[in-house]
């Protein structure tokens, strides 16, 4: 699931600069990014990208709202470090691949001619880009990041798997809800905003 292609054709470059460039590109030019930046079997850069986003999300959350730091590991600094390490090593990779497995099953249902699992992993990873900013305790920002991420997932699935927007939406609604609604707390942010506006 983490195949590293030495010389990918059309895949992503490696290193911190490449991660930063990919983050900017997928946010600004998602259609072009998904059309040219996803290569079969080239999962490693996508996995690294998803880990970076998850660590950024958790790190900003811990920094701006210290009450969210787990206290099971001693002091706040040690607890934050261990928690971020756990996110990087276990939570992000496991969540990415489990969600990709679910997304693949749904694609089988909705899309007849589709790309492979590797491409699906990469689309999910890069669609999470906005959520690097979602750790801030600002409901408007968190909701916007979650909605933008869900939109990027639709764009990525439509482009990479060669399907229609309607089928892409149908295939991604459950994974998007899990990743962006629950994982990155988009649903909580939206509920907070609706309550603030007296809608619920």
TrEMBL record:
Mode of membrane association: Multi-pass membrane protein
Keyword Transmembrane included in the entry's annotation: yes
Keywords: Membrane, Transmembrane, Transmembrane helix
GO cellular component, as recorded: membrane
Bilayer-crossing regions: 44-64, 71-88
Residues in Yip1 domain copies: 25-182
Major localization class: membrane
Originating species: Halobaculum saliterrae
Subcellular location: Membrane
Protein name: Yip1 domain-containing protein
Source domain of life: Archaea
Keyword flag DNA-binding: no
InterPro entries, alphabetized: Yip1_dom
